[in-house]
């Protein structure tokens, strides 16, 4: 049984979350708290496995509380924020402070039913996550390693990456090791709408490549990373020698929108052997069949290994299906992707 503590200043939110989570057989809401001060005492008393945490609260904001918590009592934390641009920026700060997931409260784009399914999945993932104390220093631009990564001549191959729980840190690690002229890259990271824009902007500040949220019909070119926008699928298309992305609505696939499955299958169809795929840390099986399809189309494929994954779900499923050429630690994936792109 996964024990959950809900921390939110809204009594209605606490009530709705408690009711919806109570329907899951493997989840128990052991308590709720209206602010971090009450939460602090209940964490010690109830020892929850997962904490649901709002950002904007009275007496102490959630981000300040999260930093204190991860320093003295690290445990899996899911940030639940309102759907605003500012909320997206704060959510990224929370990820850097140690939160394992972010999601939005029910709103115009997210019904209570959708929220319940997604929240249950995220809680299950968080309960299995490896939680470590975050680095004390703020992230800063890290130049690509000197040598092979920067000296080689890049090709017109396509790099495709999929990730979920723990993926924001993993994607940052991969992209920070990439040179400015790396092959055009398309990424699906499971994140809510508007949070992806903040994530892309953060990566753009830290990486040598240009990183931004994808727009429909964007050309995929060397030196550019396109991140699928939250709540939209992203597909790779080809017209002659030009690769571009299609950003579209549609039903959830593998309980996700955007879905890694959708991206990988489109990469297999449009790029075939000209593509290199990597499936990183995450809960569930989104992208596993898509990676197999890429492999069968002649693409080279990589899965992050269990030791370096926050949650070894998506990579494990891809490996089980037989669609993975190499299983590597996160630190070895950037160079391996570039090596395979040149072959």
From TrEMBL:
<comment type="function">
    <text>Involved in chemotaxis. Part of a chemotaxis signal transduction system that modulates chemotaxis in response to various stimuli. Catalyzes the demethylation of specific methylglutamate residues introduced into the chemoreceptors (methyl-accepting chemotaxis proteins or MCP) by CheR. Also mediates the irreversible deamidation of specific glutamine residues to glutamic acid.</text>
</comment>
<keyword id="KW-0145">Chemotaxis</keyword>
<dbReference type="GO" id="GO:0008984">
    <property type="term" value="F:protein-glutamate methylesterase activity"/>
</dbReference>
<dbReference type="GO" id="GO:0000156">
    <property type="term" value="F:phosphorelay response regulator activity"/>
</dbReference>
<dbReference type="InterPro" id="IPR008248">
    <property type="entry name" value="CheB-like"/>
</dbReference>
<dbReference type="Pfam" id="PF00072">
    <property type="entry name" value="Response_reg"/>
</dbReference>
<dbReference type="GO" id="GO:0050568">
    <property type="term" value="F:protein-glutamine glutaminase activity"/>
</dbReference>
<feature type="domain" description="CheB-type methylesterase">
    <location>
        <begin position="158"/>
        <end position="343"/>
    </location>
</feature>
<protein>
    <recommendedName>
        <fullName>Protein-glutamate methylesterase/protein-glutamine glutaminase</fullName>
        <ecNumber>3.1.1.61</ecNumber>
        <ecNumber>3.5.1.44</ecNumber>
    </recommendedName>
</protein>
<dbReference type="InterPro" id="IPR035909">
    <property type="entry name" value="CheB_C"/>
</dbReference>
<dbReference type="InterPro" id="IPR000673">
    <property type="entry name" value="Sig_transdc_resp-reg_Me-estase"/>
</dbReference>
<feature type="active site">
    <location>
        <position position="286"/>
    </location>
</feature>
<dbReference type="GO" id="GO:0005737">
    <property type="term" value="C:cytoplasm"/>
</dbReference>
<feature type="domain" description="Response regulatory">
    <location>
        <begin position="3"/>
        <end position="120"/>
    </location>
</feature>
<keyword id="KW-0378">Hydrolase</keyword>
<dbReference type="GO" id="GO:0006935">
    <property type="term" value="P:chemotaxis"/>
</dbReference>
<dbReference type="InterPro" id="IPR001789">
    <property type="entry name" value="Sig_transdc_resp-reg_receiver"/>
</dbReference>
<feature type="modified residue" description="4-aspartylphosphate">
    <location>
        <position position="54"/>
    </location>
</feature>
<comment type="similarity">
    <text>Belongs to the CheB family.</text>
</comment>
<dbReference type="Pfam" id="PF01339">
    <property type="entry name" value="CheB_methylest"/>
</dbReference>
<keyword id="KW-0597">Phosphoprotein</keyword>
<keyword id="KW-0963">Cytoplasm</keyword>
<feature type="active site">
    <location>
        <position position="164"/>
    </location>
</feature>
<feature type="active site">
    <location>
        <position position="190"/>
    </location>
</feature>
<dbReference type="InterPro" id="IPR011006">
    <property type="entry name" value="CheY-like_superfamily"/>
</dbReference>
């Amino acid at each position: 049984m996964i024990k959950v503590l809900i921390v939110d200043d809204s009594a209605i939110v606490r009530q709705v979350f408690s009711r919806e989570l109570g329907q899951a057989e493997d989840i128990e809401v052991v308590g709720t708290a209206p602010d971090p001060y009450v939460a602090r005492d209940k964490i010690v008393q109830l020892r929850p496995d997962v904490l649901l945490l709002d950002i904007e609260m009275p007496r102490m904001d959630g981000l300040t509380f999260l930093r204190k918590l991860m320093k003295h009592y690290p445990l899996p934390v899911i940030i639940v924020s309102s759907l605003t641009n500012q909320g997206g920026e704060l959510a990224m700060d929370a990820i850097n402070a140690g939160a394992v997931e972010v999601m939005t409260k029910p709103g115009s784009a997210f019904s209570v039913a959708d929220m319940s399914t997604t929240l249950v999945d995220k809680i299950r993932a968080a309960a299995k996550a490896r939680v470590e104390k975050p680095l004390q220093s703020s992230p800063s631009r890290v130049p690509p390693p000197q040598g092979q990564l920067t000296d080689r001549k890049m090709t017109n191959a396509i790099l495709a990456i999929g990730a979920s729980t723990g993926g924001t840190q993993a994607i940052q690690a991969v992209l920070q090791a990439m040179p400015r002229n790396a092959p055009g890259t398309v990424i699906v990271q499971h994140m809510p709408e508007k949070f992806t824009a903040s994530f892309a902007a953060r990566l753009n500040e830290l990486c040598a490549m240009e990183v931004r949220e994808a727009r429909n019909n964007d050309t995929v070119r060397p030196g550019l990373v396109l991140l699928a926008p939250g709540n939209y699928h992203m597909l790779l298309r080809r017209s002659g020698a030009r690769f571009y992305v299609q950003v579209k609505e549609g039903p959830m696939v593998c309980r996700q929108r955007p879905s890694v499955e959708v991206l990988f299958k489109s990469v297999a169809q449009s790029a075939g052997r000209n593509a290199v795929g990597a499936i990183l840390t995450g809960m569930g099986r989104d992208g596993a069949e898509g990676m197999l399809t890429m492999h069968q189309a002649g693409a080279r494929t990589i899965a992050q290994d269990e030791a370096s994954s926050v949650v070894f779900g998506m990579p494990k499923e891809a490996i089980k299906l037989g669609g993975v050429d190499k299983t590597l630690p996160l630190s070895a994936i950037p160079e391996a992707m570039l090596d395979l792109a040149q072959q």
